[in-house]
Amino acid sequence: MKTDNTLSLLNKILTCGNGVIIEKLSALGHCGISPSHGDILMSLYCHGGMSMQDIAVKIHKTASTVTTLVNKLSLMGYVESHKNEKDSRSIIISLTEHGRELYPTFMDISGELFQKLYAGFSPEEYQIFRVLLIKMYNQLQVK
Q1: 103 CA to centre of own chain
Q2: To 10 degrees, what angle do helices 35-47 and 6-27 make?
Q3: Contact (Cβ atoms closer than 8 angstroms) between residue 55 and residue 81
Q4: Cα maximum dimension of the chain
């Protein structure tokens, strides 16, 4: 059976990318925000207020992990929670003004990271790379 270090390389890329994100956020005074927090914030930027369960599904994390991450974001003043008017059993998480103010910073960092990741790629190479990554991901999702 043939093997290689593809997963190791992907993990190294993820680790380096996350390091860049954390470093840039910290340099701008946003200490304590991890890429997992960023996943939640980006979901809220794109979808508005969301239930904890919807966030968990969207970012592929357990409900307990999302609760921990949201609690930290709340303590830092980026999100707030309120009862769901449609279902009193659930809580809606939404961005605070402080959280909304972070959006341009997120987009700038994302753009810089994109440029760094794909520097030297032709448009065709970029497309092929994305298709192959998605194919690999989908193959691992089959149970």
Answers
A1: 13
A2: 80
A3: no
A4: 55
Q: What is the DSSP letter of 93?
A: E
Whole-angstrom distance, CA of residue 87 vs CA of residue 5:
47
Domains and CATH numbers, the chain: 1-30+105-143 (no CATH), 37-101 (1.10.10.10)
Which pTM does this prediction carry? 0.85
DSSP-based three-state secondary structure for 36? helix
pLDDT (tens digit per residue) in 60-73: 999 999 999 999 99
List pLDDT tens digits, range 18-77: 999 999 999 999 999 999 999 999 999 999 999 999 999 999 999 999 999 999 999 999
Contacts of residues 2-11 at CB distance under 8 Å and 24 or more positions apart, as own/partner, are 6/136
Give the Cα separation of 29 and 107 in Å (integer): 16
The candidate with the shortest Cα–Cα distance to 53, out of 43, 63, 45, 40, is 63
Q: Token pair of 93, please?
A: 């998480």
